[in-house]
Amino acid sequence: MNKIKRLIIWSLIPIILELIGLLYFNNFYLNDETTFNTKKVDLASKKSPNKINAKIPENAENISVSYNGNYISYCEDGVLNVIDTSNNKSKEIKIDDGKLSYYKWLPDKDIILIGEKYINYSGDSYLKFESYNAKKDEKSFLSDEKNKEMKISLSDEKYEVLDIAVSTATNVTYIKVGKEGAKSRLYRINVMAQVEETKYLECKLGKIAAQNKEDRIIYEDMTYNRIRAVGMKNPIATGENATHYLLNTDSEDRIYIGNGTNGKIKKIFIINLKSSKENVKTITLPQMVDKSNIYIGRDGKVLVDDISKSIVTEMTSGKETKYTGKLIGVYSYGVISADGKKIIGSLF
């Protein structure tokens, strides 16, 4: 009988212990009044922009910066070079059998579009375009679905790529080709790498800029002092006289037009072609500013460089950014400047 009691007791002990554990779990871990503090960690936001402090040769030309400051590019003796600002390693971007005509960083990717000119044995000249992905260190020609490389034939071997405008949202690229004293030609390249010449009003073609969401190219009509858009009958009106200068477009398709004289600007008009209400906004600068010292950010920030003080001012907020040397360009997080052989980044 005692053995049966002991057996029952020993059988009940694990059951009792299990019940005590369940009671503790219920009262402390599953209690309705228990609160948990959670915090979302955005790893992407933790990444800081690279500290830019790179060296370039004395004879470096066409210095530029990628949209996020991860890469610096420059030309030396007609050869394109790219510096990774995270480790300051430089890489030469070679062009086989051709020569560099023009290059431009895409406005929102670490990719360069490179215009290259070739002359074959018969003397015919043409352009080809390569994209260089700096992050992947990969270069490839623009080609169609049949892997046929896209070419633009040139009627004159002296023609060069003068400007490139890119819409990354529509995957459309516009190429301005020309030479001194001749009418420029404008070409459109679609996502399939198919090219066609774009007709524009008979005039001297100035700066070009592509809208991002709309497949539309904006251009300076330097003959009649107008800013126009291909496909639109009337010029883009500002309501004022003086000389109009196309500054840029932003990611929301707003158009920025400078108004002044002799290459200097006093007012900046911000125009939204889609908006019927207040489609024109105006920024009046405190003094005349050379158009080359005005930068339009992809986010719509209007930045003015005061070269006498080495200060860049964001016109809406009034925030100032100090730099050393000569200002080279603007990127998402700040500005870059050249001080002798050094390229220095200054954050906003």
UniProtKB/TrEMBL annotation:
<feature type="transmembrane region" description="Helical">
    <location>
        <begin position="7"/>
        <end position="25"/>
    </location>
</feature>
<keyword id="KW-1133">Transmembrane helix</keyword>
<protein>
    <recommendedName>
        <fullName>Dipeptidyl-peptidase IV</fullName>
    </recommendedName>
</protein>
<keyword id="KW-0812">Transmembrane</keyword>
<keyword id="KW-0472">Membrane</keyword>
